[in-house]
User: Fold this.
Amino acid sequence: MRLPTLAALGAALRGPAAGAGPLARVAAVSMVAAPDAAPSVEATKTSFDEVVMKTYGRFSLVVSHGEGCYLWDTTGKKYLDFAAGISTCCLGHADKRLVTAVDAQMRKVHHVSNLYYIPQQGELARRLVDRSCLDRAFFCNSGAEANEAAIKLARKHAHLRGVTHPIIITALNSFHGRTLAAITATGQPKYQQGFGPLVPGFEYVPYNDVDALRALVKRIHRNPFRRGRRLAAILMEPLQGEGGITPATREFIAAARELCDEHDALLMSDEVQTGMGRTGDMWGYMHHGIEVDVLTTAKALGGGVPIGAMLCKERANVFAPGDHASTYGGNPLACAAGNAVMTAFDDDDLLQRVRARGQQLRNGLEALQASTGVIAEVRGWGLILGIELNETCGFVASDVVARLMEGGMLTVPAGQRVVRFVPPLVISEAEIEEALAKCADVLNALKQPA
Ligand code: PLP
Assistant:
């Protein structure tokens, strides 16, 4: 299916409405049906780059439309989508249930202020609470905004117990988003450079280093001259996504839990990328056999319709009216999408599917590791998997991503040497096989440069 350009559509609509003669009407109809109505990729890029800020390095790809786990570009080329909008389009593209829910809600009422009760929001909150160890939800629009809410919540929680200098510990190599507090929480200087002064009150530890975590907490509380300096929270991804698809160890998260209990601090799980079934459990923290006090989610929560949420335990439920807000947060349209996604989890037995397809993908990638010799490690959980390339293989993750794209498959790098696989959760057995065949072709081709 090729969509008409806006100009063609406008001409078609204007013709008959303006009372034009039969010839004009024929011309208008043929413009709508024109097979090559889309502007060229070059034209789109040029026009785009003139007016949009260059905050992204973009591939030369203009997506026209999608269906299921496939996308088509404006030249008609088809791609198997193992990027899913970076772990976002959990139901794939143009899922009928999501389309119907959003369409129906749009026709009824799409936005009202949070000054009023929003039943769709209440329903989504209940479903999130029922499927987690948390008791309350606050809705927003993105992952960074959910983390901002969590950071404010941790500070208020600490403030209420007399802490004047609350400290939040995060991990090196983490990623928590792009707002000022979120880049401060993100333990990677490259995201912080040029944006100082950063937000005070953050300390960092190497991920999975239990001794360093214990030592840091001790150091925070040791200074007798700064009695108000206390641990407020430990914020961790259960598996580092942007940082290279690295799962946290059970020992590390158990130590974080113990330290938070000891100091009346909050253990906060950033599940923006790992949440909503991506790992084969509803939430990543479930892999560690502990409960968390706060959880942030976004990306897959609306299946690609923008929505985020911060969930917390009742004991951390310290926001009072006026403490925090978001105009769009949890509006009827976004929550209708969220509820459609939640319904799909039950109807499709999605968690079971993620586990089965995740195992299939992992087995296939491990077979490629053995046959190609260019993969150092296959890691991850469920359908968030990464292959780390050997240091000596002679190419990097972005080379693999570019070659896969040429071959009709979309993936995303996670750092220099890791290629990330995060397909829609509804991916089929045959589509996984297709992806593995494409990966084999690309890795073998890169291994033997012409
Ligand atoms: N936290 C994690 C773990 C993420 O992976 C991301 C985005 O990739 C974010 C937060 C930021 O989310 P958003 O881009 O929706 O603000």
Q: What stands out?
A: Residues 350-372 form the longest helix (23 residues). The chain has two domains: 6-29+39-87+349-447, 97-348. Confidence is low (pLDDT under 50) at residues 1-35. Residues 33 and 304 are 29 Å apart (CA to CA).
